[in-house]
Specification:
By secondary structure, this protein is mainly alpha-helical. The chain has two helices and no strands.
């Protein structure tokens, strides 16, 4: 059982790491649409992609925080 819990915790942390990378990629793409490289009018797609990446990161962090709180409280 403990092995399964550790695997779940590792997966939750990996999800946070991957979501953080996606935010970074989306932010770089969005930033490229502003001067000096762009015209300052980001595409709807770039904005939606960035927003979705941020939401995925928030969700991943919430899941990890819940596991961490359970661990700290002695419930995991």
């Amino acid at each position: 059982m403990d092995e399964q819990k550790r695997a779940e915790e590792a997966q939750a942390m990996e999800r946070v790491v991957n979501a953080t990378r996606q935010v970074q990629v989306a932010f770089t793409a969005l930033q490229s649409q502003y001067p000096p490289a762009g015209e300052g009018k980001p595409s709807k797609m770039a904005l939606q992609t960035f927003d979705a990446a941020l939401q995925a990161l928030e969700d991943a962090q919430a899941t990890f925080d819940e596991m961490l709180n359970d661990l700290l409280d002695g419930n995991r």
